[in-house]
Amino acid sequence: MTSVTARPSRPRRLPVLSRRGAFPLHASVLTALLAASSAPTPLYALYQAAWHFSAMTLTVVFSAYALALLLALLTAGTLSDHLGRRPVLAGALLAEAFAMAQFGTAQGVPALIAARILQGLATGVATSAAGAALLDFEDPERPGRATAANGITPVAGMALGVLAATALLQYAPAPTRTVYLLLLLLFTAQAVAVLLTPETARPHPGAWHSLRPTITIAPASRPAMALAAPGIVAAWALGGFYSSLGPALARLIAPHAARATGGLVFFTLTAAAGLAGYAARALPARTVSLAGTALLIPGSLLTLSGPQLHSLLALFIGTALAGAGFGTVTQGALRLLLPPAAPGERAGTLAAYYVLSYLAMSVPAVLAGLLTNLYGLQTAVSLYVATVILLTLTGLIRAVRRPRTA
Predict the structure, then answer these.
(1) 342 pLDDT band (50/70/90 cuts)?
(2) Residue 1's pLDDT band (boundaries 50, 70, 90)?
(3) Which secondary structure element, helix H or strand E, spans residue 173, and what is its range?
(4) DSSP class of residue 404?
(5) pLDDT tens digits, residue range 186-236?
(6) SS3 for 377?
(7) Distance (Å, rounded) from C-alpha 67 to C-alpha 216?
(8) pTM over 0.85
(9) Residue 237: how many CB atoms within 10 A of its CB?
């Protein structure tokens, strides 16, 4: 009787996406994350009508997301450098999917704030990991593609999110549930796909130590951050205003306009930002950053004139100009910041950029909500625009006086 010795079976490995396929996957992750962040914007009017809360409460709901995202960036912005891109990003995407489930079942303001906080935490962890992965997967024969994607995909995602939510608000039954169900399915699928990509980070000790709140900017990127900071703050402060109070401003100008009009204000901002960022991707980074900063001034002034003229056209033209400034400021700033950073410094530098951006997006928005409650929306808009213009002029003057470095 002959015995046959079976060969030990090798563990089957999951199929792995190629590096070429991993790049668009991570770009789609950034797009989806920012789409989810803007999806509630056109739905806020429904929430306000159902739950009867003020403009101040609305900006608190909005800023809960941004402040939670800031906390995640400050503590976990470099976590993927230590644990690896795949596990950190996949875990964050599953948390994002759970946040979508919370949105879809929210029955009041506390539940909405809780969902926004979880979304902010998950987005903060995921954006730094996905953004760093884009740089890791960049084709050496196409330099600059990853930096351009880091600048364009977030604003493109915000535009897609608010457009999809606005369309569902207009045509779909139960829009406050449908949009979040679709996003839940998308994030779950992306989490699985991320696990099939090659790991690009080299896991190493220090993960717990890295969770201490800190801001890490690559030394070579610090001069660029100092140069671009006023424009970044002004652009993202405008983004926070349009995202939280843009629909209310549209209702102030045209109370009887279609309910989708409010969502289209923020869509105009983000669509213009995405198009401008894409168009400017091949121009010198410093020129792009300065031109974008300058565009914020006429955009802000036209937005301010909308209520005075009772003109939605003025509002939308101003929003488009502000959006073009937003997109080019973002594009130029990232192209100044990221190329000088070493591979091990990328996640931290990108996280520092987002910390500044979302701090500028959230704190002024809360103050605008408070001013709206105290003095009315028109006064709040005037003070907001004045602050943005002051920041813009500061950035332009500093740039003119500073020797050219980029």
Answers:
(1) confident
(2) very low
(3) none
(4) P
(5) 999 999 999 998 887 777 776 676 667 677 788 888 888 888 888 899 998
(6) helix
(7) 18
(8) no
(9) 25
**N-term to C-term CA, the chain:** 80
CA distance 20 to 31: 18
Q: Do residues 249 and 306 lie in contact, with contact meaning Cβ atoms separated by under 8 Å?
A: yes
Percent of the chain having pLDDT more than 90? 22
The Cα 330–Cα 228 span in angstroms is: 9
Query: Which helix (H) or strand (E) covers residue 290, if one does?
Result: helix 285-309
Give Cα separations from 210 to 72, 160, 215, 255, 356 (angstroms). 12, 34, 10, 50, 19
Q: Which two tokens stand for residue 112?
A: 């909405």
Two tokens at 183? 């996003």
Degrees (nearest 5) of the Cα angle 233, 237, 243?
A: 145
- Segment holding 107, helix H or strand E: none
The closest alpha carbon to 337, from 157, 122, 131, belongs to 131
Examine the pLDDT at 285 and tell me if it is beyond 90.
no
Backbone dihedral region of 310: left (phi > 0), alpha (psi from -120 to 50 degrees) or beta?
left
Residue labelled with tokens 């303001």: 109
C-alpha span between 321 and 298 (Å, rounded):
7
- What is the pLDDT confidence band of residue 13, given thresholds at 50, 70 and 90? low
In this structure, how many other beta carbons lie within 10 angstroms of the beta carbon of residue 109? 17
